[in-house]
Amino acid sequence: MDTNFLERFLVIFALYNLLATIGVSIYGIVARPHITKKIIALTILGDALNVLAIFLGFKPSSIPPVLLKTDTISEGDIIKFATSAVDPLPQALVLTAIVIGLAVNLFLIFLALQIFRLYGTLDSRKIRELRG
Amino acid sequence: MRRSYIVLISLISVIFVLAYLTTYMGILGPISSDTRYLAKLFLALTYNPDTSTSLRYLTAMSPEAVTAIVWDYRGIDTFYETTVFFMAIVSALTIYRGITNIESKTQGSGLSIIVRVVTKLLIPMNIAIAVSIAVHGHLTPGGGFQAGAALAVISVLLAVVFSGYSFGKLGMGISKAVALRSMGLLGIATVTLLPLIYGIVAGVQTYLMQNYMKVDSPFTFPIYAWGQLISGTLIWLNLAEFLAVSFGFFVIFMLLSLREETVKKYLGVGDGH
Amino acid sequence: MDITLVLIAIFSLVGFIFTFLAVIEKDLPKAVVFSAIQSAAYAALFYLLRAPDIVLVYLPVSVGLYPAALFFLIGKSERVEE
User: Fold this and answer.
1) Which chain B residues have a beta carbon less than 8 Å from that of C15?
2) B11 and B128 co-located in one domain
3) Between C2, C42, C57, which is nearest A61 by CB?
4) Structure pTM?
5) B250/A contact by beta carbon, under 8 A
6) Domain tally for chain A?
7) In chain A, at which end, N or C, are there fewer CB atoms within 10 A of the end residue's CB?
8) Would B176 be classed as within a structural domain?
9) Span B121-141, pLDDT tens digits
10) Domain that holds residue B13
């Protein structure tokens, strides 16, 4: 088992873990009856998808996309930075997605609270029987 | 319960075996040791002080590539993301319509005195960290979104440690928080529209959300202020987004920390079944 | 060989285990705590994937604000599933 094989195995193992996390959280959204549990699974689904997006921009033995030296910068510094840093575009998209996801999920929590006020339960099977 | 642990262990084994098989058969190749061409362009142009070449029309003059993409290269994208954020907060507010201010009549029960004193010491530090993240957003990792999330932690601390009625005592009503959040949104709108107004007044071609001069447009925001790199619009947009995000979450957690009896009295819904 | 890849594999596995536990757990506060542990593992993952910006925004959001909001929801509604 050479180093190259192990590196590839670790990357694929991490990728499959993320895919399995997405699968389990979709199971949680679809099959669990309680609305709070559905919201928890939805937050996990969003997190796993964000990690997957960042994973696409990753490369081994790289640096973060932040240029630390700004005072006396030469062309060589910029070329070295551009060839060694990771892809910043998925990070920029995920950054906004996390905050907007939080706002939307908080709205869902407010809706769940309102459902509890009106129906007295958060179990989706019981809510279906009540019908207002 | 034991059955679910067996399911968990078998799932992990399946993942392990599948990953081994995929690696062995070589379906998925090794992870690329090179980024895409577009990523290289972003990274090379994000901070490029060379004014002799035509690259000065493309640079964002910010050493932080993520903030440069968020507010300069894909600024309109973030503008619409902020709109979604705005709509989510407004939708949450419509559920709680009618509640404009939290009365501080009721004495809320907080946590013990030790926790209160420690929290009182922590809150100024938290504010300092959040403002620092926002102001240095174009230089170091950070920016408006990160600083807003960091400041929103204070609202949770206040609600949990001092009970939800401490907001009223601090003079931070819901309408005030909404006003501060609207100020942040107004700041973003102002920075977005300034190039347009300049273009109409001066009679030159400009673009919405323009940061520096383009080939066919001479308008440019100041890159340096008092010898410090401020990266044109980036610092202003970061500060405005900081206000919008942090006070948006403040409103939400203020409403969440209200007692159920108070909310039911205002909303006029029944007390369930 | 890069130690980062080993840590990425370990933290993604930790994230998967705690996601599973959070989804099957009947007691909802416990499920929220499992979800917070999964979030901490993902924050480490973001750091290892060279995304310090995301770590700064993800830590307060996922370890601080989400559990707090969910605890508010559970405190005002039901504690146990089924």
Assistant:
1) none
2) no
3) C2
4) 0.90
5) no
6) 1
7) C
8) yes
9) 888 999 999 999 999 888 888
10) 1-31
Same domain, B27 and B105: no
Do both B80 and B23 map to the same domain? no
Q: Which is more confidently placed, C29 or A80?
A: C29
Output the pLDDT for position B272: 44
Residues B104 and B72 in one domain: yes
Shared-domain flag, residues B71 and B120: yes
ipTM of the complex: 0.91
Asked whether the beta carbons of A12 and C8 are under 8 A apart, the reply is: no
> Is A92 a residue whose pLDDT tops 70?
yes
| Partner-chain contact A81 B44, CB within 8 Å | yes
Question: How is B3-20 classified by DSSP, letter by letter?
Answer: HHHHHHHHHHHHHHHHHH
Place of tokens 């309408």: B175
Q: Is C64's CB within 8 Å of B11's CB?
A: no
Q: How confident is the model at residue C22 (pLDDT cuts 50, 70, 90)?
A: very high
Q: Which residue has the tokens 């493309």?
A: B58
Between residues A111 and B1, the one the model is more confident about: A111
Query: How does pLDDT run across B231-249, given as a tens digit for each residue?
Result: 888 889 999 999 999 999 9
Which residues is B224 bridged to in the sheet? B229
